[in-house]
Design a protein that fits this description.
Layout: E1 2-7, H1 15-22, E2 28-31, E3 40-44, E4 47-51, E5 64-67, E6 72-73, H2 75-87, E7 94-98, E8 102-103, H3 106-119, H4 131-139, H5 152-174, H6 181-195, E9 199-200, H7 202-211, E10 216-223, H8 243-250, E11 257-265, E12 268-270, E13 279-280, H9 282-291, E14 307-309, E15 311-312, H10 313-323, E16 327-331, E17 341-350, E18 353-355, H11 361-364, E19 368-375, H12 392-405, E20 409-413, E21 421-423
Parallel strand pairs: 1-10, 1-11, 2-5, 2-10, 5-7, 6-8, 7-9, 11-16, 15-17, 16-20
Antiparallel strand pairs: 3-4, 12-14, 13-14, 17-18, 17-19, 20-21
Helix pairs in contact: 3-4, 5-6
The chain binds guanosine-5'-diphosphate.
Length: 426
Amino acid sequence: MVKAVVGANWGDEGKGKITDMMAANADIIVRFQGGANAGHTIVNNYGKFALHTLPSGVFYSHTTSIIGNGVALNIPILINEIKSIVDKGVPAPKILVSDRAQIVMPYHILFDQYEEERLGKASFGSTKSGIAPFYSDKYAKIGYQVQELFDEELLKEKVVRTCDQKNVLLEHLYHKPLLTPEELLDTLHQYRDMIAPYVCDTSAFLWNAIKENKTILLEGQLGTLKDPDHGIYPMVTSSSTLAPYGCIGAGIPAQELKQVVTVCKAYSSAVGAGAFVSEIFGDEADELRRRGGDGGEFGATTGRPRRMGWFDCVASKYGCRMQGTTDVAFTVVDVLGYLDEIPVCVGYEIDGEVTTDFPVTSKLEKAKPVLKTLPGWKTDIRGIKKYEDLPENCRNYIEFIEKEIGFPITMVSNGPGRDDIIYRNK
Ligand code: GDP
């Protein structure tokens, strides 16, 4: 059975924790898109980890972790990440890398930096991990697939073409040092030697696993609103964040995807630029940021403070719909226990009209939040295991949001740990 864990919003919803938890009953966990630009924070019995490339199931010895063909593969980061978890006492994970995955090249990272520099104030707030230049090259058909690393003749010829093409921009647009074919070839040889032990036809592996009734988890990065088609374009990421894309980015038949767990955080946070209707500022935002997540809402990759906001029913309803949600995992509910009252965004006012449908970017920029205030519960709910044992106002908050978004909240997360989860039978 194939299941996906994806985000409803701007990312950082707590997908890592939900994947880590669901991985207890899974055989294979697959990353299917994105790269090392976003991070998952995971707390378990080995410690606290920020993963950027490895799937969140990597801490169990019974799971196989797969880097699917849809991923932007940064080879040195992957290898360092494997080393860093093994150094902390995690058993050496079983990792397979798709021979069709493409490689983030050092020049992708440079181009990402140079372009953000060039754009100045108009920049996208990129994490400068090379993701946008990487996907541009993939679709321009000038990227490097992992399998190409093992074809020396092809590489020798291709590095020359790459340098010719990239050096035009380096020289004339960015005025930066040029690439040389020799240096590039040397880097690719290093990458080949690093990745060789992990490379295989992962879609064939997954197909066999499906036939053997194995449980496969597709782990998404970021969330619906960062999807290049359905998100807040152009302030989006460069690969699809939607569960159905998981089938493409992993190489499995679409009809095998049976469960889509969409993770929604009990309040909102976002990184990077772009419209964020329910955003809050000042002391109110600082307090939520400081108390949020597990140790504050700061980027797992960049450390930058996240933008904060109240829960957004409009964005989340849309976010869940586009994912094909079967279950909502509602996370970080414990953090709201300090508030007397909790505002929730229930509509967008655009040019004097209120809507609950998530609009295109030009309208989104004009949207003002319509807020409804719900009573807080003013207690610490960590450690509670049964839904009925949650304070009434907390249940009311959850059920109000469930009704607004129109998808069943079957899991409530009330702490960062694996066991901090309350299942609801729906
Ligand atoms: P992801 O990218 O979607 O995996 O999300 P992040 O890892 O960036 O952010 C989630 C943060 O919230 C992490 O620090 C988690 O440890 C933490 N977290 C996840 N679920 C909960 C929860 O229910 N309560 C609290 N307090 N923290 C949580």
